[in-house]
């Protein structure tokens, strides 16, 4: 068995891994794990990833969790073009810097913005206090400003003149609040121009393919299975803070 990627394209880091593998012609078998159906809680998936999270990678007997580790493993094993994760010490350090920052910054507020604005009220039918949503959107705005001021600055891409894994990780995060109706690019022309460059570098068809699932979530009916609904509510309650 060759390379297997366990993904749900509802997930931001799964989309980053999917785009990276497809763009670089890395052959893989897609194993879809439906998060909203709780498939990551099954015993079968726990054998692959005891953390019960996606993405996960299986390469023969080698199993790897965590999206950043997977992206870097793929970049090294398949000898992708250098711009994705540069050999130059300082250029690579810039990519590492962004990847280290985004976990507790952009990842956190983009996920909460999507769930509070769309998933809790529409899919789980659980009201979100307006003050909590307002606080999350204000935090998202601060993160976007930091993304522009600290990382993008006046460059074409987040870490320089060429696209890197940092840009993939960032753009897939930002499409989460976009899917919930947040107009995050409308008042930020610099960020909007960067998005266009990232889409062009990846390829518009691949970009749309990777985001088709999440952009249709707003049209999903409420979750009707009471057992699954309660289990899902329990697993995401931390996103209400």
Automatic annotation (TrEMBL):
The protein depicted here goes by the name: glutathione transferase
Q: Give one Pfam family.
A: GST_C
Against InterPro entries, the record matches this protein to:
Glutathione-S-Trfase_C-like, Glutathione-S-Trfase_C_sf, Glutathione_S-Trfase, Glutathione_S-Trfase_N, GST_C, GST_C_Theta, GST_N_Theta, GST_Theta
Q: Main location per UniProt? A: cytoplasm
In the record, the note on similarity to other proteins reads: Belongs to the GST superfamily. Theta family.
Q: Pinpoint the GST C-terminal domain residues.
A: 88-223
Superkingdom is: Eukaryota
How does this protein assemble? Answer: Homodimer.
Q: Which UniProt keywords apply?
A: Cytoplasm, Transferase
Look up and give the organism this protein is from: Mesocricetus auratus
| Catalysed transformations (reactions) | RX + glutathione = an S-substituted glutathione + a halide anion + H(+)
Ranges where the GST N-terminal domain occurs: 1-82
Per the record, the GO terms for biological process are:
glutathione metabolic process
Which PROSITE patterns does the UniProt record give? Answer: GST_CTER, GST_NTER
Q: Name one GO molecular function term.
A: glutathione transferase activity
Q: Name one GO cellular component term.
A: cytoplasm
EC number(s): the record gives 2.5.1.18
Q: Where's it found, cell-wise?
A: Cytoplasm
